[in-house]
Amino acid sequence: MEFAPDPATADLVERVRAFIHDRVIPAEAVLEEQLAETPGKWNLRPIVRELQASAREQGLWNLFLPGEGGAGLTNLQYAPIAELTGWSPKLGPVSFNCAAPDTGNMELLAEFGTDAQKTEWLEPLLDGRIRSAFCMTEPDVASSDATNIATRIVRDGDEYVITGRKWWSTGAMNPDAAIFIVMGKTDVDAPRHRQQSMILVPRGTEGVEIVRPLTVFGYDDRDHGGHAEIVFHDVRVPAANLIGGEGDGFAIAQARLGPGRIHHCMRALGMAERALALVVSRANERVAFGRPIAEQGVVRQWVAESRIQLEALRLLVLKTAWLMDTVGNRKAMTEIQAIKIAVPRAVQEILDRAIQVFGAAGLSSDVPVAELFAGARALRLADGPDEVHLNALGKAELGRA
Amino acid sequence: MEFAPDPATADLVERVRAFIHDRVIPAEAVLEEQLAETPGKWNLRPIVRELQASAREQGLWNLFLPGEGGAGLTNLQYAPIAELTGWSPKLGPVSFNCAAPDTGNMELLAEFGTDAQKTEWLEPLLDGRIRSAFCMTEPDVASSDATNIATRIVRDGDEYVITGRKWWSTGAMNPDAAIFIVMGKTDVDAPRHRQQSMILVPRGTEGVEIVRPLTVFGYDDRDHGGHAEIVFHDVRVPAANLIGGEGDGFAIAQARLGPGRIHHCMRALGMAERALALVVSRANERVAFGRPIAEQGVVRQWVAESRIQLEALRLLVLKTAWLMDTVGNRKAMTEIQAIKIAVPRAVQEILDRAIQVFGAAGLSSDVPVAELFAGARALRLADGPDEVHLNALGKAELGRA
Amino acid sequence: MEFAPDPATADLVERVRAFIHDRVIPAEAVLEEQLAETPGKWNLRPIVRELQASAREQGLWNLFLPGEGGAGLTNLQYAPIAELTGWSPKLGPVSFNCAAPDTGNMELLAEFGTDAQKTEWLEPLLDGRIRSAFCMTEPDVASSDATNIATRIVRDGDEYVITGRKWWSTGAMNPDAAIFIVMGKTDVDAPRHRQQSMILVPRGTEGVEIVRPLTVFGYDDRDHGGHAEIVFHDVRVPAANLIGGEGDGFAIAQARLGPGRIHHCMRALGMAERALALVVSRANERVAFGRPIAEQGVVRQWVAESRIQLEALRLLVLKTAWLMDTVGNRKAMTEIQAIKIAVPRAVQEILDRAIQVFGAAGLSSDVPVAELFAGARALRLADGPDEVHLNALGKAELGRA
Amino acid sequence: MEFAPDPATADLVERVRAFIHDRVIPAEAVLEEQLAETPGKWNLRPIVRELQASAREQGLWNLFLPGEGGAGLTNLQYAPIAELTGWSPKLGPVSFNCAAPDTGNMELLAEFGTDAQKTEWLEPLLDGRIRSAFCMTEPDVASSDATNIATRIVRDGDEYVITGRKWWSTGAMNPDAAIFIVMGKTDVDAPRHRQQSMILVPRGTEGVEIVRPLTVFGYDDRDHGGHAEIVFHDVRVPAANLIGGEGDGFAIAQARLGPGRIHHCMRALGMAERALALVVSRANERVAFGRPIAEQGVVRQWVAESRIQLEALRLLVLKTAWLMDTVGNRKAMTEIQAIKIAVPRAVQEILDRAIQVFGAAGLSSDVPVAELFAGARALRLADGPDEVHLNALGKAELGRA
């Protein structure tokens, strides 16, 4: 057992840390200005392109991708990098072309795509020329139960016809999101986990209607393409657009979600570290009742509790990454569920305390804590609510799974 | 001891309940449309005027005001009405001309205003012709400590000159908010709680700069006039605009905050009841893993915990109201602090669980729970953060106050 | 609505308070000495008899009993008295002949007993000459589910034959506990809630075996007769010993548990108030790092949180008592469940904090907080674990009960 | 970074695991019988001697001691072994001669003792022939603040004279506890952390009065020598009994507490794992409302939460051990404080849930959960209450330490 990172990872982490602190965080104010100048626009702003160019030049590009075309890092090696990008959810991940949902979509194409699919969609994604969306969640059913999916993907000659309504398709408001990966049912009579398939739907295909953007606690998340509600009205795509075979959809989704959860958790830890750093500054500067609030017992207690939660949970995420690397996603299931439950919840709590330390300012856009809170809160629902995972984990622990 | 309300109150409460359910809640969708049609506008929308006319016709007007010009209700009698208005924070209180900060400002003028001040400002407020703002919190200091206030109110001949920066002046973005009550220091050398004064500043006075609106999470609260940052650049008003005498500001603020906290707490309970009603519907309709989620143990547990919290805290608020009515605000201080701490916190928790029951929809504007959450979260900071009150309450209980 | 008690109750409460503070609490040390002098003995100690004589002389006797033979108090009137007795669980209730399980047993006999049963058992109980036990819980089944009960009560001519194993029969180690009320099944084929009956079994009946005493966190609760495991080996009693008719057992148990829960909750609040009073003294006396710990933020916070919990929950218990008095136990079910869940849990938390304030002393028998903790902890299991009630309450609230 | 243990440790851990499961846990019932047969006796029971002989034969002896005379394990290597011993606090640690306070005392003597002190006291301790006590905490002062210590150690010629009152001297009721390490002040005028010294006081020295045993909740912890209150009445020992020099007491105590806290935390995790294993069995066996309680949502949730807490905290303890091994106790201070706070608290929570799963049985001595709870609860006070550490950790994190 050894808790120090290997030297190569340590070096890479330091380079990413420097980039985040020196380039990314100062650029946040620029992004806000650029967003304010173009209300209603959903594309990436110029500052993002600048950061991407700079990061790419430094070799900090596609770090998330384990195999060919990526940086070749293990989950364990990538984890601290993902954490650092979480310090700036709006600019960190995207600067390195490591932003969700593109990361998951690129992994999926790299693992399950045909050569043609890779050439057409993976390459421009890896190159940062286009973006993508993942269309799984539906408004009318509890999507935590995959058997509920109502979207249909029906074979008709050389084509598939897609019919259904999706929402929370993150990034899809961005017109540069050129390709949608859509989950639907090809066979409602197949066994429970063989009914679903995944298919590639180019944005411009006839019948694809972007209905509206959704908000998260009032935020439209315009910086990263928002969250769209999309209707697929008898949308026809070539049969070759299917990813894997018919009925592979559930298995592919599971494969995609494992690393995705690790990434989410690591970024969430970074969000919390950012907030904690802001809290430390604030608490030392702000004076109430004659002394800095850093001298109040309750503030110390909050900071200490936050530190403890972060240290313990980071180790659990790292161990999960290590398990995925050494025994595989399947055998790491308990740990993946554990961090999926525990990390966003703890981060939400840390951010709630951070808001409290900042007082009314903490609710506003003057400091990022309220918006980070909204992001963390959403993670407790993304990929299934906490409770579904808690129940599954408990069942397994009780030997009844 | 008797837990049943008196018959007159019971009757009034039923009439308010009917108005809220039959008129107000259905009007929320109309309000959203009207807001969408006029982005960037901060006035009350037409639907509000309609509801006000209708409520006034039914005698449901200025119910909050205990004395002359109001409905003559005690705090205990008004409490269940305030709770009902909380079911719809955007339309409930304003329909009855019972919305903050106007309520507190009207009480203040009714109690401490001169006849001239009443004629000029209280009457149009009671009549719903104008609205008002309360300018206390400042961005640069911890406002929970009144001695920190940096705004200056300096006598100069027949005038006072006001200089300072305020923020979180709720309602002040609305151009109909014609009058601002500003707290500042007239004498920095006076004893700690005799340094502050309050003064009336008409909106249009030279030197009043409305700097920008603030957001709470991502919400601009445009429906009720937003939250403004305001700079007072050597603003001159007649000396007769002072409320009470020099040095009375702290005492007036305390008098204003007592009932204000009760109102906030009661409305917050109504917010939670609304959310709980929504949760009950949703849980019975939504199916996951083959059965309504109302049959899941965790959902039952949440609903039960919410019910328990609401029942216990409502009683505490009611007892506090009764104490204010019978022994006065000062002797009800422990209870006022207790509800100020406990109610918003519990309501936040209840709303957080409601979001979880609604899944991703709960984050969006399709159901009101996320926006209600933001409102409840803000209450934990309004009029001082929880922790200040917790410390004061503990100190008193330990016999050291 | 009115939060002040009626004058007669207020007066009675003051007399009880004086007795508790002046007589009962100082007697605790005497009790400890008397217990230490007679290890292994389970009877009431002489000091109890002294206190009883004195209380009875002052008319403070059988205060719990609403009807004839009792004090005629409503549940609402008795509640504050029960709370005061909770300040000293070992001596408070018993001094006024208001100790569980005798209270519940006397209520049961008063309501459901025949004249003969009343003469034989109720009278000496009301007179304090004998004590009693209630034998419901069984070791081999989950007793929160009444249909699980394994004890059989079988009619055989003029007799009933009782066979089964009970435990947690509080008070039954005391040889003066002359009568046991035993719950068992008379008809396993009857509808779910008509299978059970209750029967009177005199302690000395052949076949009654007191197996052993049980401990609660190491405490044997010898002061109030401990908790016994009892086996009934084909125990024969006259048919006239049945309480009510065959199949009435479940209904009688429910009737008994309503007031019992109120009493438990009120006493628990008294336990917490006692602990809080001890904490206040301790925190003002104990010095660490140069100042009384009452000046530490965390201690203030604990005290404040405890005060808030107690005030809110007391009101909920009082309202529940009022509902029982005005609309009956059945319609007060939600509230009874609510307090059953919320009060012991909050009191446990308050006592846990009290232990922390006392440091290692808090774990020992030098201050009563650890033993009070054990008592409160046990309440979360007595009459069914929290979770059973939480589930039932949630189900009802969701409209699915 | 690597989460797998080294092969030698893995092997040793398996041998210890087998010993605990095959020998120690079955012996618990024997211990209870032997304790019951000899009430009031505080020595080790025969079963302990049997287990010790067997463990020693297998080379499982003094595993805690890093250097000469011990097993040569690092903290990281010893950690999983300490955890396993925690499965049976009464028999696990002592079987391997790894029980507190002897472990800390042996470490202390090994590091700071003179050759003579080692020969006289360390050797028989390592050999299991005698036991020892550590006399630090005092009843009259808050011992979390070392400057409060009231005991005096005064030089008088060739002797030191010790005067003071100690309590919570664990193990000291056992007549075989032949040597006491006593902390007191040699110079009240020295700098804050140079006033204290430590000295060896043989049990039989004139003036040593064992006043009484203390209980933790209702447990006397007779199995491991209880907890004594001891008065030192002008007790004279040779000057050579001083450990280190005058004024070294605080530093020695700090050195002793670091590993001690790790051990406590690891054992506490083992206690929780034991409880969780018991809960899993119970939940699968116990039927309520027609199905095993393992199928109840709330039980699954508890088990899942417990698993998550244990996994995260174990990693934090292991990392702390690794830091102590690689950068030293001083630089591991934040982590040591973190686990000191977080582990006992989480374990208490896990045990509280275990009690709830067991119902009333969980309160009794029929299952070990209530007694384990008492042990975990005590850990939140041992070596200073949580809050002292939380405050210190927060202060450091805020950059103000």
TrEMBL record, chains A, B, C, D:
Keyword check for Ribosomal protein, yes or no: no
Every copy of the Acyl-CoA dehydrogenase/oxidase C-terminal domain together lies at 247-396
Looking at the keywords, is Chloroplast present?
A: no
This protein's GO cellular component annotations are: cytoplasm
User: Which key words tag this protein in UniProt?
Assistant: FAD, Flavoprotein, Oxidoreductase
Q: Name one GO molecular function term.
A: flavin adenine dinucleotide binding
Matches recorded under InterPro entries: Acyl-CoA_dehydrogenase, Acyl-CoA_Oxase/DH_mid-dom, Acyl-CoA_Oxase/DH_mid-dom_sf, AcylCo_DH-like_C, AcylCo_DH/oxidase_C, AcylCoA_DH/ox_N, AcylCoA_DH/ox_N_sf, AcylCoA_DH/oxidase_NM_dom_sf
* Superkingdom to which the source organism belongs: Bacteria
**Record-annotated Acyl-CoA dehydrogenase/oxidase N-terminal domain positions:** 11-128
Acyl-CoA oxidase/dehydrogenase middle domain ranges (all copies): 133-235
GO BP of this protein: fatty acid beta-oxidation using acyl-CoA dehydrogenase
Kindly give the Pfam families that the UniProt entry links to this protein.
Acyl-CoA_dh_1 (PF00441), Acyl-CoA_dh_M (PF02770), Acyl-CoA_dh_N (PF02771)
- Which coenzymes or cofactors are required? FAD
Summarize subunit and interaction data from the UniProt record for this chain: Homodimer.
Q: Report the family membership.
A: Belongs to the acyl-CoA dehydrogenase family.
Please identify the protein, giving its name as recorded. Answer: Acyl-CoA dehydrogenase
- Provide the species name: Agromyces protaetiae
